[in-house]
Write a structure and sequence with these properties.
2 domains; 41% helix; Rossmann fold; 7-stranded parallel sheet; elongated; 5-stranded parallel sheet; 370 residues; alpha/beta; 19% strand
Length: 370
């Protein structure tokens, strides 16, 4: 059965091109288009889409207003925001992710040919459509589920499983080596802005390790995300600048389209960025950061792999694990897509598999314990 996609955009050329290109993919069918948010809301019950591609900037009822209303009526319908690669588009897209959009894709711009623009749409949208349609997705805006009396026994069993897993995670944290943790390296993709917003504000101003983050995002998006996180956190958060000395209690995020690494010069560790070829089709790539962290910090490193599609971070986690460092991953239930953390967990590299709500506490406990 094909995946049914509803394309919502006020520009007729965008609607037609996206729907035509997506329909060339055997597993996908663009079942309908809509020129506005209001029309989209009318079409959803008619065409029953598996996923929606939603423009950010539209007149009368913009993408954010449409998103909120879709979430209210259809809390589990996957939505990918489709935005221009501009400061305004990036800011609105980040707002959309906070409001419950699952992912985003950038519209083609400054490309040399129609073929390049078409390929951009295929590359940006198709993997995300498949990833979000293949899993049970979870949304911030979803109403809480109600547990009836007849389900109390099953719920108790679920709660007991959670307690048992907490005990296992606690034993693992208590049993790790006593070497200090000097660096926390975090890799994240789909669902990342909300995952990071759950973790970083919980860390204290005197957090005793440095934090480096690779979030799969293009330029402008990473800078804006860093600024937003900085406004909510007790510790400084900034986009990484090459040559910066790595210090405890600071967070640096890899700039869009640049790999982030660390380099030790005598006793000083500095940030390095570069535009070496993408890895796992990503730049920045988690593997690049993790390999660098393993080389410089060895068993004094903690790698954290959060929600995201693909397997970026798996090879890097192997490096950190091999040098005696530590690995935490986000659990499947709280991940938007359990690709990146799932590969690491299934490879047996994770010391702890944690819900996002408990990740900050686990990081703090490991760093404080050591």
């Amino acid at each position: 059965m094909k995946l049914h996609v509803l394309v919502v955009d006020d520009a007729v050329i965008v609607r037609n091109r996206v729907s035509k290109i997506l329909s060339t993919v055997p597993e996908i069918e663009a079942v309908s288009v809509a020129a506005s948010g209001k029309i989209a809301l009318l079409k959803i019950p008619q065409v029953n889409p598996d996923i929606i591609i939603l423009d950010v900037e539209m007149p009368e009822m913009d993408g954010l207003e449409t998103l909120v209303e879709i979430r209210r009526q259809y809390p589990k319908l996957p939505i990918i925001m489709f935005s221009a690669l501009t400061v305004l588009g990036a800011a609105t897209t980040l707002d959309a992710l906070i409001l419950g959009a699952n992912d985003y894709a950038t519209k083609p711009s400054n490309l040399t040919s129609i073929e390049a623009a078409n390929q951009h749409i295929l590359t940006e949208l198709v993997p995300k459509i498949k990833a979000l349609s293949a899993v049970e997705t979870r949304f911030i805006a979803s109403p809480p589920s109600t547990v009836s009396y007849k389900n109390v026994t099953n719920q108790d069993a679920i709660n007991q499983d959670a307690i048992n897993q907490d005990a296992i995670n606690q034993d693992r944290i208590n049993s790790v080596s006593t070497s200090s943790i000097d660096i926390v390296a975090i890799g994240v993709s789909t669902g990342g802005p909300n995952a990071l917003a759950e973790i970083l504000p919980k860390l204290p101003a005197d957090f005793p390790a440095a934090i480096l983050i690779v979030q799969h995002m293009p330029p402008m998006f990473t800078k804006l995300m860093a600024e937003r996180l900085a406004s909510k956190c007790h510790i400084p958060v900034a986009e990484a600048i090459p040559g910066t000395t790595v210090k405890p209690g600071h967070v640096w995020i890899a700039p869009g389209d640049y790999h982030l690494e660390v380099l030790r010069d005598n006793n000083i560790v500095k940030l390095v960025t570069n535009q070496a070829p993408p890895e796992n089709s990503c730049r920045p790539a988690v593997d690049v950061l993790f390999r660098s962290v393993a080389k410089v910090y060895g068993n004094k490193s903690l790698g954290v792999v959060l929600t995201g599609m693909g397997k970026d971070g798996l090879q890097g986690a192997e490096y950190i694990h091999a040098c005696g460092g530590h690995i935490f991953v986000q659990d499947q239930a709280s991940s938007v897509v359990w690709g990146m953390p799932g590969f690491v967990a299934n490879a047996g590299l994770a010391e702890s598999i944690l819900p996002i709500s408990k990740m900050a506490d686990a990081i703090l406990q490991l760093v404080a314990h050591n």
